[in-house]
C-alpha cells in the first residue's frame, strides 16, 4: 500500500467537482465492505492498481480490503499457462493441472476470511473461489484485467463455468466481452498521474536523464518505449524512422528492457542493434527495471512517441505518452484505438509506411502535433486516470442491486 | 435645653456653613438654569442627537452635584477640626466621583448606542463589547482616583494594572481588530446579511450573520464558512447583493455518472448492424448516439454517432457514413424515433448495395449500454444569480444530465433548466432561448458558458 497517496492531490488535476462526486458515491457505500482478492501484493499490473486504488477508496471512506490467495509454485505455473491461453496462445493444459488449480482453490477457500459484502475477484487465479458462493453468499464481481478477445476455447470453457456464477464481470475493452448470462461492464485500466512514471518533472531532471543516456535535444526525438519484443515491431520502427529521416532531421530512441522470463528479448536486442547499423541518430537504451523517472523524463523530452506494435493488450504506455501531451503515432491494435482517436488524439497506422507518413505530418507541422498532444492529454484526463477507475468501481458496487438503465441514488 | 444653649453660644459655627451651603446651592442652581437654557436653545437650532443625550442624562444629576459642591464648601468654612474637615471632604469627593462615574457610564452607553445608525443590522455583541470596554475603563479610572484620594500605594496598583492590560492585549489581541473590522463592515455597508458574495478563494455564498468577530457565509453547497472580519476586510469580495426575485421552488442540481455495460452483441456487417438495432434496448441506442459528446467533451463535437464512425472506419462506406452523421439527434424527442431513423437510413442503403463488406477482424461493432446513475448534489438555486453561480461550478456530468439526458432519455420535452426558469422563475424568454439552443453543436464547456451568458444578460 502507498500511504503517501492523498485523494485531495488529484483535485488540481481533475477538478473539485470530480472529487466531490467521488465523495458522494463513497458516502453511499458507507457500511459496505468490499474485499479484493488477487494473487499477489507486489509485482504485476493488478497489484500496482490495487496498491493505489485501495488506499484512495479507504480515504474516501469506503471500507475496502485486500487479500491474496496462496499456492505452490506449481499452481502459479498453471495459472501462467491459463493466462497465456486466455491471450490466445496455444497452451496444452493437462487434467492434473486443472485438478491442481481446483485443489489450491479449495485450500484457499478454507484459509481466506471472506468478510465482505462485495467480493471483488481479480483475474483468473482466484476465479474459482466462487465455487463456495452458496455458503459465502453476498455479491461477487470478476475483474478480468487481461485480453480475452481470442481465448483458447478449452481454457475459456473451464473458466467460464466459474465466471457465470458471478453477479457481474468487468473487462478492459469492449472487444473482450463474451457471451455470458451475467452482466458485463467495461472499465478500461488507468494510469496514476502522481506516480513517478507520470508526475511532472522539472526541466533539470529531464536534462539530467538525457545526459545520463548520452542524448541531447539538438534534433527532434522520436521515442518508442517497450520491452525488446518482436510484437512491438522495433525493426518496423527503425524502418519508418529511416523513411522519415530522408527529409527531416530527427533522432530515434528505442528504450526498453530485457526481461529475465523472456529468453527472446536478448536476441531481439541484438537484432535491433544490428539493424541500426551504427546509425548515430538511432539510440538503443537498455533500461533496467525500476527506473520510472528515467522513462518519464525520456517521454517528456520526446517530440513524438510511437507504439508501432503488431499486437497489444491495452497498452497503457499510450496513456502515459498522451498524459505528457505528446503527439502519438501508434498501430490500431488491442486497446490503442480506445486511447488514440485517429486524427483527434493522435495518429493511427497500419503499416511501416503509414507510420512514416504520420511521423512526417507531425514533424512538418509542430502545431498540429501540439494540438494532438493537447487533445490526448484531455482524453486521458477524462478517461484513463486512476480516479476514473475507482469511480467506475464504486458505480459498479452501487448498481449491483439495480437492473434499470437509469438509477436514482 | 442643652442643645438650645449650645446653639445660642455657637450659632455662628452652624449658621455660617448653612448660609454658605444655601448660597452656593442657589447661585449654582441659577447658573445651571442659564447654562441649560442656552444649550437647549442651541439644540433647537441644530437638533444634534449627541448633545440631546448629554443634556437629558446630566440635567438631573447636575442638581445633586451642586448639592455636593455646596456641602463641600460649607464644610471648608466650618470650624470643625482639620482632620474632620479632611475626612468629610474625602467622603464628599468620593460620593461625587462615584456618582459622576455612574452618570458617565450611562452617558457612554447612550452615546455608543446612538453611534450605530441602525441597530438591527449591528451585531448585539459588538454593542455590548464596546459598551463594556468603555464602562470598565471609566470604573478603573474612578477607582484609581478614589485610591489616590484615600492615599493608597499607587505605584504597586499601577504596576498590577499595566500588567493586567498587557495580558489582556495578548489574550485578546485578535478581538479588537475583528471588532473594528466588524464595525467598519456594518458602517460602510460593504456587506449585509442576505447578500450573495464571492470570495477571493472562489467560494460563493449568502451572508447569514455578521457577528462582532466573524461573518458567517452559507455556501451554495450548504456549508457554513466562518470568516474573521479582519480577513474579510483584507480580501477582495464581489458582492452580488440581494436577489429580490426568488423562485417558487429551488432548482435542485443533480449529477449523472455513467457506466458502460457490455451487451456481448457485435456486428461485423451492415445487415447485422441493422438487425441488432431493431432488438437492442433504448439505452444502447442512446449510448451510441451520445458517446462522442461524452467521450470527447474537450473537442468541438462533430455531431455524429458511433454508427457513422464505424461505417466509415471499419466498412469504408463514406456516403452512408455521411448520411448517418447528418441525422440531427436534436430533432428527436424519443430514442425510439431516433432508432427508427437510423435503421431506415441503413436499410435504404442496403437496398441499393449488392455486395456487403465485412469489417476486418478486431474492428467489429460492439453494442454498449449506457447505465446512468443520478445523484442529487448539495447545490440548490433559489434565484437567477445563484443559478449562474452554481452553473459555473457544477460538474460536466451535472450539466449533461440536465441538458441532454433530461430531454431525450427522460423525455421531459425540453431541458431541466428551461423548465425551471419558466415555471418557477417566470423567465419565459430566457427559458425559450435555452430551449432553442442545439446542445449537440457545442463542447460541454462552451455550452456551460453560453447558458451563463444568456442568464447574465437577465441579471
Can you tell me about this structure?
The complex is a heterodimer of chains A (409) and B (459). With 409 residues, chain A is an alpha/beta fold. Chain A has 2 domains: 7-190 and 386-399, 3-Layer(aba) Sandwich (Rossmann fold), CATH 3.40.50.2000; 203-383, Glycogen Phosphorylase B (Rossmann fold). Chain A is built from 16 helices and 13 strands. Chain A has helices at 11-14, 16-28, 45-59, 73-86, 95-111, 133-136, 153-163, 203-212, 234-245, 264-276, 292-301, 316-323, 336-339, 352-364, 366-383, 386-399; strands spanning 33-38, 63-68, 118-122, 139-143, 168-171, 183-186, 221-225, 251-256, 282-286, 304-307, 328-331, 347-349, 406-408. In chain A, strands 2-1-3-4-5-6 form a 6-stranded parallel β-sheet, covered by helices on one side. In chain A, strands 9-8-7-10-11-12 form a 6-stranded parallel β-sheet, sandwiched between helices. Chain B has 3 domains: 2-175; 185-241, Roll (SH3 type barrels); 251-458, no CATH class. In chain B, the strands form 2 sheets. Chain B has a 5-stranded antiparallel β-sheet, with helices on both faces. At the A-B interface, α2, β6, α15, α16 and β13 of A face β6, α9, β7 and α14 of B. β6 of chain A pairs antiparallel with β6 of chain B, so a sheet runs across the interface.
Amino acid at each position: 500500500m502507498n500511504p503517501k497517496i492523498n485523494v485531495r492531490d488529484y483535485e488540481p488535476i481533475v477538478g473539485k467537482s470530480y472529487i466531490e462526486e467521488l465523495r458522494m458515491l463513497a458516502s453511499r457505500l458507507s457500511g459496505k465492505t468490499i474485499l479484493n482478492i488477487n494473487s499477489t501484493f507486489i509485482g504485476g499490473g493488478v497489484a500496482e492498481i490495487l496498491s493505489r486504488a485501495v488506499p484512495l477508496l479507504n480515504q474516501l471512506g469506503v471500507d475496502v480490503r485486500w487479500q491474496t490467495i496462496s499456492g505452490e509454485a506449481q499452481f502459479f505455473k498453471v495459472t501462467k499457462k491459463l493466462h497465456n491461453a486466455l491471450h490466445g496462445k496455444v497452451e496444452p493444459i493437462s487434467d492434473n493441472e486443472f485438478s491442481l488449480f481446483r485443489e489450491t482453490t479449495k485450500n484457499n477457500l478454507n484459509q481466506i476470511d471472506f468478510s465482505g459484502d462485495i467480493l471483488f475477484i481479480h483475474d483468473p487465479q482466484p476465479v474459482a473461489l466462487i465455487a463456495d458462493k452458496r455458503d459465502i453468499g453476498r455479491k461477487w464481481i470478476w475483474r478480468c484485467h487481461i485480453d480475452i478477445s481470442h481465448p483458447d476455447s478449452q481454457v475459456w470453457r473451464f473458466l467460464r463455468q466459474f465466471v457465470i456464477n458471478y453477479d457481474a464481470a468487468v473487462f478492459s475493452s469492449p472487444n473482450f466481452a463474451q457471451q455470458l448470462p451475467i452482466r458485463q461492464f467495461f472499465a478500461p485500466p488507468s494510469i496514476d498521474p502522481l506516480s513517478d512514471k507520470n508526475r511532472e518533472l522539472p526541466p533539470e531532471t529531464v536534462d539530467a536523464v538525457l545526459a545520463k543516456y548520452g542524448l541531447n535535444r539538438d534534433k527532434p526525438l522520436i521515442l518508442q518505449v517497450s520491452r525488446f519484443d518482436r510484437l512491438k515491431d522495433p525493426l518496423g520502427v527503425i524502418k519508418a524512422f529511416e523513411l522519415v529521416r530522408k527529409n527531416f532531421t530527427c533522432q530515434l530512441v528505442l528504450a526498453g528492457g530485457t526481461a529475465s522470463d523472456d529468453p527472446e528479448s536478448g536476441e531481439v536486442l541484438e537484432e535491433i542493434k544490428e539493424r541500426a547499423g551504427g546509425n548515430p541518430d538511432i539510440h538503443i537504451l537498455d533500461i533496467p527495471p525500476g527506473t520510472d523517472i528515467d522513462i518519464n523524463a525520456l517521454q517528456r523530452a520526446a517530440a513524438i512517441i510511437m507504439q508501432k506494435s503488431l499486437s497489444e493488450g491495452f497498452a497503457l504506455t499510450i496513456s502515459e505518452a498522451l498524459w505528457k501531451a505528446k503527439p502519438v503515432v501508434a498501430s490500431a491494435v488491442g486497446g490503442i484505438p480506445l486511447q488514440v482517436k485517429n486524427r483527434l488524439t493522435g495518429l493511427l497506422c497500419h503499416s511501416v509506411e503509414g507510420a512514416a507518413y504520420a511521423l512526417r505530418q507531425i514533424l512538418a507541422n509542430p502545431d498540429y502535433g501540439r494540438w494532438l498532444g493537447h487533445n490526448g492529454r484531455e482524453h486521458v484526463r477524462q478517461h484513463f486516470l486512476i480516479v476514473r477507475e475507482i469511480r467506475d468501481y464504486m458505480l459498479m458496487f452501487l448498481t449491483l442491486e439495480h437492473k434499470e438503465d437509469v438509477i436514482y441514488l | 435645653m442643652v442643645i438650645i444653649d449650645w446653639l445660642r453660644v455657637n450659632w455662628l459655627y452652624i449658621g455660617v456653613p448653612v448660609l454658605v451651603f444655601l448660597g452656593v446651592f442657589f447661585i449654582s442652581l441659577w447658573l445651571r438654569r442659564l447654562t441649560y437654557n442656552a444649550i437647549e436653545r442651541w439644540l433647537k437650532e441644530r437638533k444634534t442627537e449627541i448633545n440631546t443625550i448629554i443634556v437629558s442624562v446630566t440635567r438631573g444629576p447636575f442638581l445633586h452635584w451642586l448639592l455636593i459642591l455646596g456641602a463641600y464648601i460649607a464644610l471648608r468654612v466650618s470650624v470643625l477640626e482639620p482632620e474632620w474637615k479632611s475626612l468629610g471632604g474625602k467622603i464628599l469627593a468620593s460620593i461625587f466621583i462615584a456618582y459622576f462615574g455612574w452618570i458617565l457610564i450611562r452617558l457612554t452607553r447612550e452615546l455608543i448606542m446612538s453611534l450605530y445608525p441602525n441597530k438591527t443590522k449591528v451585531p448585539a455583541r459588538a454593542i455590548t463589547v464596546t459598551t463594556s470596554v468603555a464602562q470598565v475603563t471609566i470604573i478603573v479610572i474612578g477607582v484609581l482616583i478614589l485610591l489616590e484620594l484615600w492615599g493608597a500605594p499607587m505605584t504597586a496598583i499601577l504596576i498590577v494594572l499595566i500588567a493586567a492590560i498587557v495580558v489582556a492585549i495578548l489574550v485578546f489581541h485578535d478581538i479588537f481588530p475583528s471588532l473594528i473590522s466588524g464595525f467598519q463592515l456594518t458602517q460602510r455597508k460593504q456587506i449585509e446579511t442576505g447578500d450573495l458574495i464571492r470570495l477571493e478563494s472562489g467560494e460563493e455564498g449568502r451572508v447569514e450573520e455578521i457577528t462582532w468577530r466573524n461573518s458567517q457565509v452559507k455556501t451554495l453547497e450548504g456549508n457554513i464558512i466562518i470568516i474573521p472580519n479582519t480577513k474579510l476586510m483584507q480580501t477582495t469580495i464581489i458582492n452580488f447583493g440581494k436577489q429580490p426575485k426568488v423562485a417558487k421552488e429551488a432548482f435542485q442540481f443533480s449529477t449523472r455518472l455513467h457506466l458502460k455495460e457490455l451487451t456481448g452483441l457485435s456486428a461485423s456487417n451492415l445487415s447485422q448492424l441493422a438487425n441488432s438495432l431493431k432488438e437492442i434496448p433504448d439505452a444502447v441506442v442512446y449510448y451510441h448516439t451520445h458517446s462522442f459528446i461524452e467521450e470527447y467533451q474537450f473537442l468541438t463535437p462533430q455531431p455524429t454517432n458511433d454508427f457513422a464512425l464505424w461505417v466509415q472506419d471499419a466498412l469504408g462506406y463514406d456516403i452512408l457514413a455521411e448520411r448517418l452523421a447528418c441525422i440531427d439527434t436534436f430533432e428527436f424527442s424519443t430514442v425510439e424515433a431516433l432508432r427508427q431513423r437510423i435503421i431506415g437510413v441503413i436499410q435504404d442503403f442496403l437496398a441499393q448495395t449488392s455486395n456487403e463488406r465485412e469489417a476486418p477482424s478486431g474492428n467489429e461493432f460492439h453494442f454498449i449500454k449506457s447505465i446512468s446513475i443520478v445523484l442529487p448534489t448539495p447545490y440548490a438555486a433559489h434565484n437567477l444569480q445563484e443559478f449562474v453561480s452554481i452553473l459555473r461550478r457544477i460538474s460536466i456530468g451535472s450539466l449533461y444530465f440536465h441538458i441532454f439526458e433530461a430531454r431525450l432519455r427522460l423525455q421531459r420535452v425540453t431541458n431541466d433548466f428551461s423548465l425551471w426558469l419558466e415555471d418557477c422563475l417566470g423567465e419565459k424568454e430566457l427559458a425559450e432561448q435555452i430551449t432553442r439552443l442545439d446542445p449537440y453543436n457545442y463542447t460541454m464547456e462552451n455550452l456551460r458558458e453560453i447558458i451563463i451568458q444568456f442568464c447574465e444578460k437577465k441579471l
